[in-house]
Amino acid sequence: QVQFVESGGGLVQPGGSLRLSCAASGFNLSTYAMSWYRQAPGKERELVAVITSAGDSTHYADSVKGRVTISRDNAKNTVYLQMNGLTPEDTAVYYCNAISKGSAMFYWGQGTQVTVSS
Known about the structure:
Order of helices and strands: EEEEEEEEEEE
Radius of gyration: 13 Å
Largest sheet: 7 strands, mixed
Number of strands: 11
Distance between the termini: 40 Å
């Protein structure tokens, strides 16, 4: 069964950094494009970043471009999201998922909470 376990979130001050991890299991990660989404309180879930199956191309939402880097280690079945220059607007629960044709493919994991506050 497909499972995503996100970790690495926490409370950070504005301008700080976090590195999120997503451990995936139950499917062949190396054959899927992967993505990070986030959902802020009272808002819909939004796509943050995408990486191709081979890791040779990435795409970012305008709201995080230049501050965020998505990467993957297929040997470890893990996807990462390095976030720098965090602002309170980045406060959200962050989720990962496989993605195809712009849509998440599997059930969501629990996510990891990121809170940016002074």
